[in-house]
Amino acid sequence: MPKLLITQATGYRYRGSLEPYKLKKRKLVGAVIPYLAALAPQDWKITLVDDATEEIDFNADVDVAAITIRTVTSLRGYEIADKFRARGVTVIMGGPHATFYSDEVAEHADAVCIGEAEEIFPKMLEDAAGGRLKKFYRRDTPANLAGMPTPRWDLLDSSKYVFYRPYVIQYSRGCPFICNFCAERRLNGDYGYRYRPVAEVAEDIKKCGSKHIFFAASQFAGDVDHAMELMEALIPLKVRWSTLFSAHYCLDEKFMDLAQRSGLLHVNMGIESINQNTLNKMSKGFNKTAEYSHMIGNLTGRDISYSLNFVFGTDADDETVFDATLQLLRDLKAQTAYLIFWSLFAAHRFTSNSRRKAALSTRRTWRGGRDCHAISSRCVFLRTSWSGASRRSGMTSTRMDRRCGACRYLTSSRTSRAGTCTSCRERSSTTSTR
Predict the structure, then answer these.
(1) Angstrom distance (rounded) from CA 222 to CA 219
(2) 215 near 243, Cβ under 8 Å?
(3) 41 part of a folded domain
(4) H/E run at residue 124
(5) Sequence-ordered list of residues with C-beta below 8 angstroms from that of 191, at least 6 positions apart, any chain
(6) What is the CATH number of the domain that holds 75?
(7) Which residue in 351, 274, 278, 359 sits closest to 309, CA to CA?
(8) What average pLDDT does range 311-332 have in this prediction?
(9) Euclidean distance between CA atoms 47 and 353, whole angstroms
(10) Predicted confidence (pLDDT) at residue 252 exceeds the cutoff of 50
(11) Cβ-Cβ contacts under 8 Å for 343 (sequence gap 6 or more)
């Protein structure tokens, strides 16, 4: 019986550091590696290892190591792959970064999965067992989301998760919209918006045994009628669930009433910008800045928590956008916001020559590990508190990361009084001693 190890690479803790980012326990039971285990042929002995919470045994008796990576975790993924290959273990790699940068990933893998894994991943394992593995396996047709196997949650180490642990359930893929800053559609093959049969989603929820569910798809409401059919099915299951969907769906009173009745606990939404001109240039003009207050009111009035995403760095932005965005958050008494600085990927659609030229340098940037391989990433987290005196005074307390004054990299506790990060201080110290 051939032996397979499947792992999801973590990232590195800091820029310029090869220390893996580790967690004592996860707060969310992911679907990626247990679903890959479900896709594997039944005659394989499978071991799942979460690189963020467990130590990988590079001397393990395995025939194939399958590693899934995102851009932020790709360098750590390469490190894992190189160690296994040094022992003669066959390495298969896949995931978003493998789809967008397959040639780079191929330098560290015996085979690369490009696109969705259904049918492709089991074929790769069969070829590996038969000694006929190819370098690239590409899916050129949309995966059928009906009849998907139930993730092998039984192979996970339950002690590595906190007591309250929502399970990730797959419901849909893709998005009906084509926002030019987003790589979602390209990741899933530009096949538009697809979803699973409601009965199969409900069955997965029953099998996971949890009353706390997270639908991880980036667009839960891409087909409103089907989403409402699913929400109707959630009511008798008595679950609390969270998801992501576009902010303008909050204006649909019927949709929101059903979401509340079905147990919606939290929704993450892409506001993206406070500037309507910026939204229009993003191809996201269906977001109307004049409606933001109404959207938030429809959530808070139903006791549904929310978080908002903002994207900075488009050609339409200027330096005034930062203070104006913070003021809007204060005015809305927003609960949580993620302020994201646009990093370029090969899959992005660009609206100017400057962005096309900048995209050419991203491979060099990623390979150097500067911007995309540290867990702190390029996202500022902001949480507002509206209780007690702060609510009465109209003031908000915020927690925000700062930028290093030398390299402009986003930092938090690592920033000194002088405003520089640990890496820059260490580099400066090394230079001065030479």
Answers:
(1) 6
(2) yes
(3) yes
(4) helix 120-129
(5) 142, 173, 174, 185
(6) 3.40.50
(7) 274
(8) 90
(9) 47
(10) yes
(11) 362, 371, 372, 378
Q: What is the pLDDT of residue 14?
A: 82
What phi-psi label fits residue 303: left (phi over 0), alpha (psi between -120 and 50 degrees) or beta? left
Closest C-alpha to 265, from 318, 216, 304, 227: 304
pLDDT band of residue 121 (cuts 50, 70, 90) is very high
Q: Is 434 exposed, middle or buried (0-12, 13-18, 19+ CB in 10 A)?
A: exposed
* pLDDT score, position 383: 53
Measured CA to CA, the distance from residue 416 to residue 4 in angstroms comes to: 45
Half-sphere exposure of 105 (CA within 13 A, CB side): 28
DSSP conformational letter for 381: E
Q: How many H helices and E strands in the chain? A: 16, 17
Tell me, yes or no, if the pTM score tops 0.85: no
Share of the chain above pLDDT 70, in %: 78
The Cα–Cα gap between 136 and 112 comes to 5
Residue at 81 is within a domain: yes
- The closest alpha carbon to 102, from 132, 131, 134, 80, belongs to 134
**d(Cα 247, Cα 270) in Å, to the nearest integer?**
6
Rounded to 5 degrees, φ, ψ at 313 are: 115, 10
User: How far, in Å, CA of 145 to CA of 173, rounded?
Assistant: 9
The answer to whether residue 369 is domain-embedded is: no
pLDDT tens, 177-234? 888 888 776 776 667 889 999 999 999 999 999 999 999 888 999 999 999 999 999 9
DSSP code, position 144:
P
| Under 8 Å between Cβ of 145 and 196 | yes
- Asked if residue 59 is part of any domain, the answer here is yes
Summary mean pLDDT of the chain = 83
Residues ≥6 apart with Cβ < 8 Å to 242: 166, 213, 214, 215, 264, 265, 266, 267, 268
Residues 109 and 243 in one domain: no
For the ranges 133-137, 184-188, 211-215, 383-387, the lowest mean pLDDT is seen at: 383-387
Spell out the residues 6+ positions from residue 419 whose beta carbon is closer than 8 angstroms to its own: 402, 404, 405
CATH number, position 253: 3.20.20.70
What is the band of 417 on the pLDDT scale with cuts at 50, 70, 90? very low
- The whole domain housing 277 covers 166-343+378-400
Count of the separate structural domains present in the chain = 2
